[in-house]
Every structure is written in C-alpha cells, then in structure tokens.
C-alpha cells in the first residue's frame, strides 16, 4: 500500500482558503503558492551566502557578470551587462579592487583602456557564494529523479513562455 505524500504548509493554506473561495482551484493555488515559497526560500539562502562571503548584493552581481565573461571584461562591458551608468561601475570596481577581488590592468590592444579581471580571491569568493545556492538547489531538486527534473523543467518552461508572452 502506498504511503500518503507528506504534507507541507501549503496544504493547510489551500484547505483554509477553499471554504472561503469555493471556486479556488486547489492545484493552481497549491502550485503557485509553492513556487512563491520556494523562490523566497532560495532568495534567503542566496542572501545568507552573501553574508557568509561578506559580499553586498551589487558586489556579487558585478563578480557574477565578470565571471560570465570568462573572468575579464572592460568597464563598459560590465556597465552594459549590469544595465548601469559607467560611473556606477567605477565605484563598484574601486571597492572590489580594494578588497583584492578584482584588478584593473591596461588593455594589451589599447593602452588607453583597462581590463577588469577576477583575482584568484575574487573567483574563489564568487564560486563559494555560488556553491552555497547551487548545493541547496541540488538538495531540493535531488528529491526528484532525472526524468522528473526534465519534466518539471519542461512544464515550468511552458508556464514561463505564457508569462513572457501575455495575451494581447
């Protein structure tokens, strides 16, 4: 005989609202509420990892964009990636450079330009913060088998396509 699925907070939430909203679809309410709670949970894990690695959110974002460019970029490329004014990026880079997480060097192609590079400490700090969140994501989705993860990813993609292309 199959054991009943374990219950979570959302099960009680849905049960509480069904008598109040008789037209409520418990599957829609349950799925949306779980996605929202999961998002909040992962945001808290991410924020704690930033605290653990002594990073401000904007510092992590800058390191992340730099890492996404192979560990080196021009300040103007980072400004575009971060959707910020170049002056804002300069301030961020000043702070990160003082902390030893990035270094600025003259461009080999054009000495008037600089290239920003992740230092080994910057890469290790970025990877450490990334690993905390990645490990939690792996732990959570590890309760599903490979085929279930593929299916979940496909189903969420369909939902996101609908969200990204609202009806006219």
Any overview of this molecule?
- The protein has 168 residues and is mainly α.
- The protein is 65% helix and 7% strand.
- The chain contains 7 helices and 3 strands.
- Strands 1-3-2 form a 3-stranded antiparallel β-sheet.
- It is elongated.
- It starts with 8 loop residues before the first helix and ends with a helix.
- The mean pLDDT is 93.
Global mean pLDDT: 93
Largest sheet: 3 strands, antiparallel
What letter string, H or E per element, gives the SSE order? HHHEHHEEHH
Radius of gyration, taken over Cα atoms and rounded to an integer in Å: 22 Å
Instruction: Order the strands across the largest sheet as they lie in space.
Output: 1-3-2
Ends distance: 49 Å
How many H/I helical runs?
7
- Unreliable segments of 5+ consecutive residues: none
Assign an overall shape. Answer: elongated
Beta fraction of the residues? 5-15%
How many strands in all? 3
- What class would the helix/strand composition place it in? mainly alpha
Helix content: 55-70%
Characteristic key phrases:
three-stranded antiparallel beta sheet; 168 residues; mainly alpha; 3 strands; 7 helices
Short summary of the structure?
This protein is mostly helical. The protein has helices at 9-17, 26-52, 57-68, 75-82, 86-98, 120-141, 146-164, and strands spanning 72-73, 102-106, 114-118.
Helix and strand arrangement:
Layout: H1 9-17, H2 26-52, H3 57-68, E1 72-73, H4 75-82, H5 86-98, E2 102-106, E3 114-118, H6 120-141, H7 146-164
Helix pairs in contact: 1-2, 2-6, 3-6, 4-5
